[in-house]
Design brief:
Low-confidence stretches: 1-10
Number of helices: 8
Number of strands: 4
Shape: globular
Mean pLDDT: 90
Strand content: 5-15%
Largest sheet: 4 strands, mixed
Structural class: alpha+beta
Radius of gyration: 17 Å
Amino acid sequence: MSDLTHSPTAPQDPVVLDVWCELQCPDCLSALDDQRALRERYGDRLDVRLRHFPLEKHRHSFAAAQAAEEAAVQGAGQAYAEAVLARVRDLDRGGEQVLLEVARELGLDVDEFETALIDGRHILAVDADHAEGKAIGVTGTPTYVIGGERLDGGKSQEGLRARIEEIADRLLAAGPAA
């Protein structure tokens, strides 16, 4: 019996790009254009995954990460994260009310957001991302991990998209693991 997962015509799993992000981080807002360009270039061949890395210096970042998890449950994770990042300055001043306003603007169940922020149902997911990030050496945001390589975007975004594309192209050219 042949193994179809390794045949030359079998569909390839997408390359995974983990983006360690903090939703109150101005640098993460700046990185959105690169992420959009990567999604457009690669489509479903690149799986861009938001990973939470709330920083203590931003007092609403942990709540924002929990809210983003609730948005993902409601089917709007990426749209919500981008909308919150677009209001990074408002979030600093308005806190959780801004998180609820964004949910309302996107047509999400605001009551469920409020409940999720109170009952902490997404704390474990956020904590798990943060712990994994620390374990692999993430110290700031945005940080990208692709093909086992960590790229720090918190210091500079300069050249990062090109480096990510270089790694993605190499991984996609290699094809499915044999």
